[in-house]
Design brief:
The longest helix is centred in the middle third of the chain and has 30 residues, at about 320-345. The protein is about 45% helix and about 15% strand. It is of the alpha+beta class. A five-stranded antiparallel sheet has the order 5-6-8-9-7, with helices on both faces. Strands 10-11-13-14-12 form a five-stranded antiparallel sheet, sandwiched between helices. A two-stranded antiparallel sheet has the order 1-2. It is elongated and about 100 Å long. It has three domains: about 25-160, no CATH class; about 190-300, no CATH class; about 320-495, no CATH class. A hairpin with a 2-residue loop joins β15 and β16. This is Spore germination protein. It is found in: Cell membrane; Membrane. Belongs to the GerABKA family. Keywords: Membrane, Transmembrane, Transmembrane helix.
Length: about 525
């Protein structure tokens, strides 16, 4: 006990010598807590050793405590106000609040109000009170103003965030021929509104999460309670409750943390910027995750075949929609196997080609100094570089780079004898097939798998391609998306879900059209 008292007096002496005391809750005494310098290390936080800091009835100490919690940042504005006979301070982050709203809805009403309670005089839609420093800091960082009054142990919080958001428009990456042309934006509230407009069921629920110790990013989990499988939603909630991140900026970063298989190249949640697409999946019993600050909404769980379905399928005749679905799945096989098939046939199995076609191919590759595998790799890498350059450049220049660059480079490599004419055709068809996927996530995966299949074809011929395809199918059959089979309804086989799978079934009374 004596040693504890000596240590306590030493720490108090250090705190008084190097830093004035700021009070909160119990730390050294029963009623108050000091924020101290311990061996030269400042601890100006809203929590100390896991203990919550509370406001006191001393106005100056409360203001100093908040300033320390913000490390004395210069954009924390502190304005003096008077309410009745009480002196007060209004605190807010300069860049996070709407200045006109602060003046019109808070400062002027406080000066002219005759009511006894300051909370009643504020003219804002969201107002509340808190006595904890941690909650007050969190609200200030969310665009609220905090009113501290002399003799009051609670702060009055008024939400007046600055509302800067872009207009609702169709996403550039998910164009459709017919149907709605609106899209998600960076505002979580706007995105939720777009979904609520489409789904007016009372069982359409929202659960809010906050991730990121530094960013405090809001995340909304939305689902229709009477439609979704409760096992699925429990699995998703368990994943979300286990998240512990320092910062969260994008929905993709969140997906990497919560997905079931972190080493699979296949996307285990569908990312979309289209409200109509997200709403249709919600009506099918899926859930969506909305991350504040990003327009990409995650749909989960999902399946492999969902990435080859488009909103256009439901805005045209079911036969036409089914035809395009089949075409997209064929395009996946072309993107994965076409260059590999060419390499395998030219290198190992030329006898399976018709004689005229064989002579034509042999003539085109006669003076090419490289084997087919190097030809294919060279052209695929050039294609990826052109595509990446076109994405990063402004739109008018990007179109020029894509067209002129492809023509010039393609012609130059053929005339130089580095690549055959046949390989140019093969790589061109492969690129077009990969771009047929409605989602860029799967288009990239198909091109990456194409590299793997080319290596297998170079080593083992057609047997290598068969091995790669078998490995892909086995992996897809084993893969799960938030507890649900990724290759459903094929593995496991679900005949009752075959109606809207590869073929789009026609709409009938009493059934959902999507």
């Amino acid at each position: 006990m004596l040693n504890c008292n000596i240590f306590r007096h030493i720490v108090r002496w250090i705190s008084m010598k190097y830093d004035p005391p700021v009070y909160g809750i119990n730390f050294f005494s029963r009623n108050k807590i000091r924020v101290v310098n311990v061996i030269g290390r400042r601890i100006p936080m809203s929590k100390i050793e896991g203990k919550e800091l509370f406001l006191t009835d001393n106005l100056n100490q409360n203001v100093e405590l908040i300033q320390r919690a913000f490390y004395h940042t210069e954009d924390l504005v502190v304005e003096s106000v008077v309410f009745g006979h009480k002196r007060g301070q209004l605190l807010y982050i300069n860049s996070l609040v709407a200045k006109d709203k602060v003046m019109d809805y808070i400062i002027r009403p406080l000066k002219s109000s005759k009511v006894k309670h300051a909370l009643e005089s504020l003219q804002v839609s969201e107002e509340k009170q808190t006595g904890t420093v941690h909650k007050l800091v969190s609200e200030l960082l969310s665009g609220s103003c905090a009113l501290l009054l002399e003799g009051e142990e609670k702060a009055i919080l008024a939400s007046v965030p600055v509302e800067e958001k872009r207009a609702i428009k169709e996403p550039d990456s998910e164009h459709i021929i017919s149907g709605p042309h609106d899209g998600f934006g960076e505002s979580m509230a706007t995105n939720m509104m777009l979904l609520r407009k489409r789904i007016k069921a009372p069982s359409f629920k929202m659960k809010k999460y906050v991730f990121g110790h530094l960013t405090g990013t809001n995340v909304a989990l939305m689902y229709i309670d009477e439609v979704i499988d409760q096992k699925v939603i429990h699995h998703i909630e368990e994943k979300l409750n286990s998240v512990d991140l320092q910062e969260l900026q994008t929905s993709t970063a969140l997906l990497e943390v919560i997905q079931d298989n972190k080493h699979s190249p296949f996307p285990q949640a569908l990312s979309t910027e289209r409200p109509d697409r997200a709403a249709s999946y919600l009506l099918e019993g899926k859930a969506v995750l909305i991350v504040d600050g990003t327009p990409e909404v995650l749909v989960l769980p999902t399946t492999f075949f969902a990435f080859y379905q488009s909103v256009d399928d439901y805005t045209m005749h079911w036969i036409v929609g089914s035809f395009f679905r089949i075409l997209r799945l064929i395009s996946f096989l072309i993107a994965v196997t076409l260059p590999a098939m060419y390499i395998a046939i030219v290198s190992f199995h030329p006898e399976i080609l018709p004689l005229g076609l064989l002579y034509s191919i042999r003539t085109s590759i006669e003076y090419v100094p490289f084997p087919p595998i190097l030809e294919a790799f060279l052209m695929q890498i050039i294609l990826e570089i052109l595509k990446e350059a076109a994405i990063r450049l402004p739109s008018p220049i990007a179109q020029t780079i894509g067209i002129v660059g492809g023509l010039v480079i393609g012609t130059a490599v053929v005339e130089a004898g580095l690549v055959s004419n046949t390989m140019i055709v093969i790589i061109g068809l492969t690129a077009i097939a990969s771009f047929a996927a409605p989602f860029n996530q799967m288009a990239v995966i198909s091109r990456l798998l194409g590299f793997v299949s080319m290596v297998a074809a170079f080593l083992f011929g057609l047997f290598g391609i068969a091995i790669i395809l078998m490995a892909i199918i086995i992996h897809l059959c084993k893969l799960e998306s938030f507890g649900e089979p990724y290759f459903a309804p094929l593995a496991p086989l679900k005949t009752n879900e075959m109606g809207d799978f590869v073929l789009r079934k026609p709409n009938k009374n009493g059934e959902s059209p999507s």
